[in-house]
Design brief:
This protein is α/β, with parallel strands linked by helices and 299 residues long. The chain has two domains: 2-166, NAD(P)-binding Rossmann-like Domain (Rossmann fold), CATH 3.40.50; 172-292, N-(1-d-carboxylethyl)-l-norvaline Dehydrogenase, domain 2 (Orthogonal Bundle), CATH 1.10.1040.10. Helix content is 48%, strand content 15%. It contains 13 helices and nine strands. It has helices spanning 16-23, 36-44, 53-57, 70-78, 104-112, 127-132, 143-156, 169-197, 202-210, 217-226, 241-258, 263-277, 289-292, and strands spanning 2-10, 27-32, 48-49, 62-65, 92-95, 117-120, 123-124, 135-140, 157-164. It has a six-stranded parallel β-sheet, with helices on both faces. A three-stranded mixed β-sheet has the order 7-8-9. α8 packs across α10 (217-226) and α8 packs across α12. The protein is globular, with a radius of gyration of 20 Å. The mean pLDDT is 95.
Length: 299
């Protein structure tokens, strides 16, 4: 363990806890969560729990943030109980969330005024991959900031891609990535719903499609879960539909600021919004098939 490098992980939920556990295999890890039960779990995995976020970050070399959106990012840093006043000059904040490009650069500028670097490092991969250090991370940050964050990023990532030297560059690439992912999942839902409406066996259809030019990662990954979407319990939630409501909104906002038409992404966003309206927001994103066809025609 590298005891002379300390990282604070704020939020020990579905992603935060496995990331903290992974980091604890090589670094000193401080943790904070508002739920006492999560702190207990973190302690069992080698993480030192703290009663407040400010106490957790006070002596940290790096702080890892996994927030839901720009509002939470601003609040955790600069809100009434924000951590910015407690951060040590020379430390680095690592943002692993997808929040869009618009608000990241102003955050970086506010932190820089206090001698703190921001590493823009949105990631892809679920809790299991987080615990194994098998995440895909894209990074936008100055070389000196990347060097400060390297012990954290190298433990978490199996694929680490530097896309630029500025905060916001990572968010930009992740926005493009989410456009494609969101469209591909929505298209897979439409295709399998059409197969059912035509009277085809969805499982056999999926196998046939994956053997030809229509195959895609998302069809192969989400397709089997779409076949479970009509069950009472649905598919295991590996990525909630609400995440794509947020992310496709980020895509649309970015495109509108640039005056760039993205009609396919806009149509996909409407499917996710329809799914949320049907009460599917907390279900796996594969349940978007039910936004296309609320019920199967050929059970």
């Amino acid at each position: 363990m590298t005891t002379d490098y300390t990282v604070a992980v704020l939020g020990l939920g579905a992603m935060g806890l496995p990331m903290a556990s992974r980091l604890a295999t090589g670094l000193t890890v401080h943790g904070f969560d508002i739920a006492p039960a999560r702190l207990d779990l973190a302690r069992e995995r080698g993480v030192k729990p703290f009663p407040s976020a400010r106490e957790a970050v006070a002596d940290a070399d790096a702080v890892l943030l996994a927030v839901r959106d720009q509002y939470q990012l601003d609040d955790v840093l600069f809100g009434d109980a924000g951590i910015a006043p407690a951060l040590r000059a020379g430390s680095v904040v690592i943002l692993t969330s997808t929040v869009g490009t618009a608000g990241v650069r102003p955050v970086a500028e506010r932190l820089a005024a206090s001698g703190i670097d921001l590493v823009d490092a949105p990631l892809s991969g679920g809790p299991a991959r987080a615990g194994e250090g098998d995440l895909l991370i894209v990074v936008g940050a100055a070389p000196a900031a990347r060097e400060k964050a390297a012990p954290v990023l190298e433990l978490l990532a199996s694929t680490l891609t530097v896309v630029g030297d500025n905060a916001g560059d990572g968010q930009a690439l992740k926005t493009v990535n989410q456009l494609l992912c969101g469209v591909h999942i929505a298209a897979a839902g439409e295709a399998l719903a059409l197969a059912d409406a035509l009277g085809l066996d969805p499982a056999k259809t999926l196998d046939a499609l994956m053997g030809g030019a229509a195959a895609s990662f998302m069809l192969g990954n989400r397709g089997p879960r779409m076949l479970q979407a009509y069950d009472d319990e649905g598919a295991e939630v590996l990525s909630a539909l609400d995440i794509f409501v947020k992310d496709m909104g980020i895509v649309g906002d970015a495109a509108r600021r640039l005056g760039l038409p993205t009609p396919v992404a806009a149509a996909a966003e409407q499917l996710y919004l329809s799914g949320r309206a049907q009460g599917l927001g907390s279900r796996d994103d594969s349940s978007v098939i039910r936004a296309v066809a609320p019920e199967r025609r050929h059970p």
